[in-house]
Design brief:
The protein has nine helices and eleven strands. It has helices at 62-78, 82-89, 107-118, 140-150, 163-171, 191-204, 226-234, 255-263, 345-363, and strands at 32-34, 49-51, 96-101, 122-126, 153-158, 180-185, 215-219, 242-246, 268-271, 283-286, 322-324. The chain has a five-stranded parallel sheet, covered by helices on one side. A four-stranded parallel sheet has the order 4-3-5-6, with helices on both faces. Strands 1-2 form a two-stranded antiparallel ribbon. The longest helix is centred in the last third of the chain and has 19 residues, at 345-363. The chain starts with 31 loop residues before the first strand and ends in a 9-residue tail after the last helix. The protein binds N-carbamoyl-L-aspartate (NCD). N-carbamoyl-L-aspartate (NCD) binds at residues 107-108, 184, 190, 193, 225-227, 287-288, 326-327.
Length: 372
Amino acid sequence: MAIGFVAFEFDADKRDVTRIPPEHGVRSGALVQGRRHGAGAAGLSQRHRRLFHVLDPRQFDRALLDDLCALSTRLRRHARSRLGARSLQTLLPHKRAMLYFTQPSTRTFLSFDNACHLLGVRTSEIRDPAISSEVKGETFEDSIRTFSSYVDVIIMRTHEAGMAAQSAALMDRIKRPVPIINAGSGRDQHPTQALLDIHTLERSFGRRGGIDGKTIGLMGDLRRGRTARSLAYLMKNYRDVRLVFIAPDDFGMGSDIKVHLREHGLPFHETRELGSVIGDLDAIYVTRLQTEHDVGDESKGYEHARYRIGPEQLPALRSDAVIMHPLPRGPEIDPAIDADPRAMYWRQERNGMWMRVALLVKIFEVEDELPP
Ligand code: NCD
């Protein structure tokens, strides 16, 4: 069945690539540091800008996304040989990273940690605020400022939204600012996951013209799932993309994201029925029910059986479609489909590490030191 999309005109000029609306509490200058002009200066080519804080997917434009994807592939290729891997380790041995993860994490933590090590960056970590001076009453801002005294980049995941942005604003007020990377901010955003998701989509559609022109379904708890929210933001960078949101009414995509998509002329369609759209999708991005954000029994009525992919759904899916999931998974992806060539989630994990290596290379501007 053809999907009835809310149609909007594609208008590339409307795409403001570096500014984030003021409600995010971040000055545009905090995101991409201009060498000669302000960060948002129109027409400033990527080469003259430095990627600094990574806070929100809206700071990425197409040129930077393409650059990061190509760089990630290049770095991965280098690391295949012993000499190549050794040369990567000589890029940033003078840098230190702080991994401040006060919300549970397996993949994001490990992939950042290993990304740092692949580049020779030394890491320290706090995963439990109960063992930092925050228990003695130290404020969040003082803790961040303290970390910044010892390291060159702070990678952080928090329960609450806005903490990475708040830290970046603090950095921009002090003498020795270090970049802040948002590795997941509450229910709000997960920009580096969105980058690795884009990388996975681009690789998967490598022989089919990339992401441009594709129909991408996002399914599950879209209201509270930060990965789907961040990925939806990045989609404005691709031409003729259509999004399909598949979720029960109470778990639909947030209106803030839908307003953004409308403003950028990106057509989307919403449905409760996977079966009505599955055959139209080039990719389906499945997400889990975010029960940790329940304040009451919101998750109780969620019908897992309707928002899952298992062997029964596979015949309806196009033979060249891809199935993605940020992981960890719940019942929404049946392990019985793991061996299907369309299942991309394990590759997605590995792409995540290389995308994070690329991000660090960009932030510390050592790309030119790489062998061709
Ligand atoms: C996601 C997250 O933490 O938002 N996981 C991840 O980073 N790979 C997805 C999730 O937990 O549902």
